[in-house]
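Summary of Year 1 activities. Much of the first year was spent building the evaluation harness for sequence design. The harness presents a backbone, in tokenized form, and records the residue chosen at every position. We chose the following record to illustrate the format because it has been used consistently in internal testing since the harness was completed.
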């Protein structure tokens, strides 16, 4: 055993130090963070001058107060003021209990709050203090629940699911009663508008948004605009997934970033793409994109029906594609809340400039109430996606199925009314795109060979072969219309049609 000069063992000295750091008489519990004085000062300021209420009411709610009686007083004062009446100790006591404590009546307490009130100028600072402390208390609660869930989780609750639920709880907490929003001056909005116009002017193709690679579509839309919810809808076999993958890969392939003075990388062209594939696996999606880029039939790739040179081309193409910032999540049956949590994580870790969801009807709502009614559930999904597009400041392309009523019409061009549970989708979407291929329907109407009808049918088929229409059914900030594009079915690839004015002059 080691001893110091006084003869005391080092172990004894260590024990003494431990006891000093951890005295026996510890507090049995810790109070949650709060500031009763700030709550009293704010309520007093509101009672003296009702203008103080409007300085905090856009972010402060009754639940943010620590003292239950203060919650009640704040709620009553808010109701009185919003009704256009004056809130004073006299008018407020009518709606509150008579006795606060055995020693103090409600009238006395309200009068004391008003008497000790400070100026209305400090009201916003008091409100922010109360809000911040409430957030801290909620954080403590979320943390405790996380610990409890981690200890007592059942078989079905995976660690990943717990993390996503925690992320959702934190996001809901951040969004509830946030005080960083509100009005901005017109000059601020004007600055942002000029900035966007400058980006459009300097960008290739003079687009304010992200280019899709389809020239005529970009002309009508100005590219994919940030914070827009874009619905891409079609009947099965029209090629909506193919169009989505084409756009997603073009954006990712075109990515170009510049390092800014503060160290972060700003996207100059293209962008990082997140693709939620709820229908197909990541491997199937990659096969489609590989087929498109290598110009080899995807069915041939899957069957192995390719020769040596084609396989070499596939390998070379895949090597070029490997560095593309395209991220695929093929988890099936996820809720819109889980999708939002994963999108935020991708934005934070890798960056995000475009989000694709394939497809809308395979998502589920997060609330039990909504899941009982499909229309309500879809309303929650589209509303959440629109809010997510604004929050992340990226365009979101969400694919959607069309109802069967299209098949019952002679003219099978899709319309807004054909959207499944169309109310919420049509309402929340900034842009609605439809994909339509006349060739698909005409192919199924082939008359008997050798007849005059068959010759007419052949002539019609030649006109529509390899062509598709992208119909802009709704655009909040631009025109509607139809864009003609090419479609190569074997490569699942959409492209630009060669226009007559782009072609060289014909020799007569």
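For this record, the design step produced the sequence shown next.
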């Amino acid at each position: 055993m080691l001893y110091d000069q006084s003869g005391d063992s080092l172990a004894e000295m260590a024990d003494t130090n431990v006891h000093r750091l951890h005295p026996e008489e510890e507090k049995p519990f810790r109070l949650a963070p709060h500031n009763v004085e700030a709550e009293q000062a704010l309520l007093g300021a509101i009672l003296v001058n009702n203008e103080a209420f409007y300085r905090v009411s856009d972010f402060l709610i009754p639940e943010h107060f620590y003292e239950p009686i203060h919650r009640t007083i704040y709620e009553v004062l808010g109701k009185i003021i919003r009704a256009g009446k004056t809130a004073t100790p006299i008018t407020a006591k009518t709606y509150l209990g008579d006795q606060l404590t055995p020693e103090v009546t409600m009238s006395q307490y309200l009068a004391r709050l008003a008497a000790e009130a400070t100026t209305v100028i400090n009201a916003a600072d008091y409100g922010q203090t109360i809000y911040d402390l409430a957030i801290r208390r909620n954080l403590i609660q979320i943390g405790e629940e996380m610990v409890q869930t981690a200890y007592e989780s059942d078989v079905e609750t995976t660690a990943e699911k717990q993390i996503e639920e925690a992320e959702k709880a934190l996001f809901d907490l951040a969004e509830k009663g946030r005080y960083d929003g509100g009005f901005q001056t017109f000059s601020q909005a004007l600055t942002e508008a000029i900035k966007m116009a400058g980006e459009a002017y300097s960008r290739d193709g003079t687009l304010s948004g992200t280019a899709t690679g389809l020239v005529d579509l970009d002309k009508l839309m100005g590219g994919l605009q940030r914070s827009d919810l874009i619905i891409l809808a079609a009947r099965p076999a029209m090629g909506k997934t193919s169009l989505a993958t084409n756009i997603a890969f073009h954006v990712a392939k075109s990515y170009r970033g510049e390092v800014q003075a503060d160290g972060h990388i700003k996207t100059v062209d293209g962008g990082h793409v997140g693709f939620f594939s709820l229908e197909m696996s990541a491997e199937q999606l990659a096969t489609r994109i590989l087929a498109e880029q290598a110009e080899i039939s995807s069915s041939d790739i899957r069957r192995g029906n390719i020769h040596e040179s084609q396989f070499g081309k596939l390998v070379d193409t895949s090597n070029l594609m490997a560095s593309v910032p395209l991220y695929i999540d093929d988890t099936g049956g996820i809720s819109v809340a889980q999708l939002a949590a994963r999108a935020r994580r991708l934005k934070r870790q890798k960056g995000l400039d475009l989000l694709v969801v394939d497809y809308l009807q395979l998502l589920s709502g997060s609330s039990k109430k909504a899941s009982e009614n499909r229309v309500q559930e879809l309303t929650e999904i589209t509303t959440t996606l629109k809010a997510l597009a604004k929050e992340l400041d990226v365009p979101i392309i969400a694919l959607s199925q069309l109802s069967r009523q299209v098949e019952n019409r002679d003219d099978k061009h899709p319309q807004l009314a054909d959207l499944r549970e169309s109310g919420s989708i049509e309402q929340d979407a900034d842009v609605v795109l439809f994909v339509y291929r006349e060739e698909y329907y005409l192919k199924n109407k082939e008359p008997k060979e050798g007849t005059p009808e068959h010759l007419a049918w052949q002539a019609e088929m030649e006109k529509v072969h390899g062509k598709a229409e992208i119909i802009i059914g709704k655009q909040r900030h631009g025109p509607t219309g139809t864009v003609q594009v090419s479609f190569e079915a074997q490569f699942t690839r959409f492209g630009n049609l060669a226009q007559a004015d782009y072609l060289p002059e014909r020799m007569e």
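The chain is about 45% helix and 10% strand. Quantitative recovery figures across the full test set are reported in Table 2.
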